[in-house]
Amino acid sequence: MKLVYASRTGNVKKAADRMMARDPVRILTGNEKIDGEYILLTYTDGRGAIPAVVDLFLQSNAHYCRGAAVFGNSERHPDTFCGAADQIEARYHIPIIGRMEYDGDPDTELEIRSMLK
């Protein structure tokens, strides 16, 4: 299984790097294509929104996604913390693996690593 991620500030990239996945795919434009199952790591945009590039990517690739982990900042956005998770789950029917602060948490990362094997 592949690891696909989107990172704006570098926090999600740090977590993706710790996964030690083979050939991770970074979403840069949203036009990337994936041809097999994957786990998605993404940040939350603005006040709880799916980042535009991730939304565009999922429009063509959601059917291969087996789970998503969403990152956010509960101090700056307590009311919309990881709001992208709710939208991804509702719009694309993708199960949410975890909602993480800043650059991840060990328990969720362990679960993702086991899914990637």
Give a description of the structure.
It is a single chain. The chain has 117 residues and is α/β, with parallel strands linked by helices. The protein has a single domain (2-116), classed as Flavodoxin domain (Rossmann fold). The chain is 34% helix and 22% strand. The chain contains four helices and five strands, in the order βαββαβαβα. The protein has helices at 11-19, 52-61, 83-92, 106-116, and strands spanning 2-5, 25-26, 38-43, 65-72, 96-101. The chain has a five-stranded parallel β-sheet with strand order 2-1-3-4-5, with helices on both faces. It starts with a strand and ends with a helix. The relative contact order is 0.22.
Write a brief structural summary.
This protein has about 120 residues and is an alpha/beta fold.
